[in-house]
Amino acid sequence: xxxxxxxxxxxxxxxxxxxxxxxxxxxxxxxxxxxxxxxxxxxxxxxxxxxxxxxxxxxxxxxxxxxxxxxxxxxxxxxxxxxxxxxxxxxxxxxxxxxxxx
Length: 102
Fold this sequence. Notes:
By secondary structure, the chain is an alpha+beta fold. It has two helices and four strands. The radius of gyration is 17 Å and the shape is elongated.
């Protein structure tokens, strides 16, 4: 398959960092598997990787919902909710994926 940006035929297996802006800030996902064009550097994700990214972003939305409820109910810091969410994410996705929530 040709690169959509430069029409080159050569792509290699690589990993990249995926950034997404969400309502509460940013989600940064490191070590995301991709195919990278050797000529222009354009990155392509498989359908399964896109599905994992979408699940991560959906879980981030769920986390923010939990966080709002905890703050509303208790007015307390959210470190316990952060820990719970990190545990859910870590146990859901392949170990090659790594996450930062800002």
